[in-house]
Amino acid sequence: MEGELEELLNGIGPRLRTLRRDRGLTLDSLAEDTGISISTLSRLESGRRRPTLDLLIPLARAHRVALDQLVAAPATGDPRVHLKPQSRGRGSVLVPLTQYPGRIQVFKQVLKYREPRLVTHSGYEWLYVLAGELRLILGEREVVLRPGEVAEFDTGEPHWFGPAGAEAVEILHLFGPHGDQAVVRTGPTAKD
Known about the structure:
The structure is a single chain. By secondary structure, the chain is of the alpha+beta class. Helices cover 28% and strands 26% of the residues. It is built from five helices and nine strands. Strands 1-2-3-9-4-7 form a six-stranded antiparallel sheet, with no helix packed on it. It is elongated, with a radius of gyration of 20 Å. The protein starts with a helix and ends in a 16-residue tail after the last strand. The model has no long low-confidence stretch (mean pLDDT 83).
């Protein structure tokens, strides 16, 4: 038991470093977000300092992961994700489908009509239409997607998406940091 605990504790530093680097954060920016000094963060990541709850909780919040993901706690029981729909105003609903948001976050969304407003931000989006029609505006281009159709784009380009008409549209929505893209396989590969 003692060896297993030691192994779990030794794995926290590299896991913290990987999370920070995957999100493109510097020690400076993470220190600012968490209130933890740069030297403490560096010692945690290198394993020269033992993690404590008062350090791990703000780090879990900053990285948007569950505390047990940071410590690689063994799986306990039910692997199902317990969905918690979130109302987004005017009848729109967002349902997170990933239990521990990491690099790519997955949502099911029901979008009601709203006025288009182009936005930009860092990241990459992948949209799959389940029901209804989705209007997608990318810069000067505009397309309408129907059930079974997919769109993907860099969110640095001005964009907006919502129902193509008065009826709601239901989509699967994947969002990840810049450079992350969904890989879609529609059948066996040539190697199969």
